[in-house]
Amino acid sequence: MEVSVIGLGRMGSGMASTLLRAGHRVKGGYDVSRQAMERLSGSGNFTAASGLADALDADFVILSLPTGKEVREMVSLWGRRVGAGGHHHTWR
User: What is the rounded distance in angstroms from the CA atom of residue 74 to the CA atom of residue 51?
Assistant: First the structure.
């Protein structure tokens, strides 16, 4: 299972680390802070996303963002991507 974690602050990096320890592949870990992504890059199953669109290309996407504003922006980006023929993911 490929999981993407968008927002790698305290909570998001903790979730990503737990997923990695459970043997899942965290593909598309993304944060606006390059340093946050680099902290996890030493983990064997972690791949930093090259951008937000890349981070959305996973079996499951976890959002760990500071406010509802950022969550709405991500949902909007996802909607535009699906409308442009991207993969369809179900938000849970």
Answer: 12
